[in-house]
Design a protein that fits this description.
The chain is elongated, with a radius of gyration of 27 Å. α2 packs antiparallel against α3. It starts with a helix and ends in a 20-residue tail after the last helix. The protein has 2 domains: 31 residues; 37 residues. Helices cover 61% and strands 0% of the residues. It is mostly helical.
């Protein structure tokens, strides 16, 4: 077999494997297992992951992770924001007139 044919077959085989891997990763992304091409991770997710890894390496950094979780829990506990447009029945500050 001439070398040109071998290189062409190798190139086609590699291209087919990469295309198959791309389809596999897109399917995993569609099921929510990974972030790949279509969906992007939230900006804070990488920072949170790095804090967790850092806290494993240095236990003294654990307080940063715990504080971040506490802040997120407090934000969840606050409930809905106040209504920006109160109605007259709720009071508009005109003394009930």
């Amino acid at each position: 077999m001439p070398p040109v044919v071998k290189w062409t077959l190798a190139f086609v085989a590699i291209a087919a494997m990469l295309a198959g891997l791309d389809r596999l990763l897109l399917a995993a992304e569609a099921r929510g297992f990974i972030y790949y091409r279509r969906r992007k991770a939230s900006p804070g997710s990488l920072g949170s992951a790095m804090l967790e890894i850092h806290s494993l390496m240095q236990p003294s950094a654990r307080h940063a992770v715990e504080e971040q979780r506490r802040v997120v829990e407090e934000e969840d506990d606050e409930g809905a924001p106040p209504d920006p447009h109160p109605t007259r029945e709720q009071g508009t500050g005109n003394g009930g007139q």
